[in-house]
Amino acid sequence: MSMAKTPVIAIVDDDEGVRASLASLVRSLGYEAHAYKSGVDFLQEPPQDDPACMIADVQMPIITGDELQARLVASGRRFPIIFMTAFPSDTVRQRVMAAGAHCYLGKPSSGDEIIRCLEEALAGHASH
């Protein structure tokens, strides 16, 4: 048994079906999945428990994914975020990528595409 901690992937999406399918995808890769139904729920987590990576929806009630990112960055909590959205917008994409997001994917995205973004984010590669 290696002592390395299993990377935790936070999944933030108000759609239960999406949360469940992303969680099983993440677990199939050998990572731990922590799912949240809103950005508000995630922000209640103590900062020292920050995930290795986050997969977040952009369109969510109360706080959008990009607002969640802005709040995390403002409080010095930086980890790679993979955004998914059913309504891709260049403006939002440019803003979240400039703020350090790792990927900005349309919904639905293929499992392969999500896995590629996740593996890159965890390996610490800058995305192109």
From TrEMBL:
Domain Response regulatory: 8-122
Keyword Transmembrane assigned: no
SMART domains documented for this protein: REC (SM00448)
Entry keyword set: Phosphoprotein
GO biological process: phosphorelay signal transduction system
Residue(s) carrying 4-aspartylphosphate: 57
UniProt xrefs under InterPro entries: Bact_response_regulator, CheY-like_superfamily, Sig_transdc_resp-reg_receiver
Protein's UniProt keywords contain Phosphoprotein: yes
Pfam family, one: Response_reg
Transmembrane spans: none
Protein's name according to its UniProt entry: Response regulator
Originating organism: Bradyrhizobium cajani
Lineage summary: Bacteria, Pseudomonadati, Pseudomonadota, Alphaproteobacteria, Hyphomicrobiales
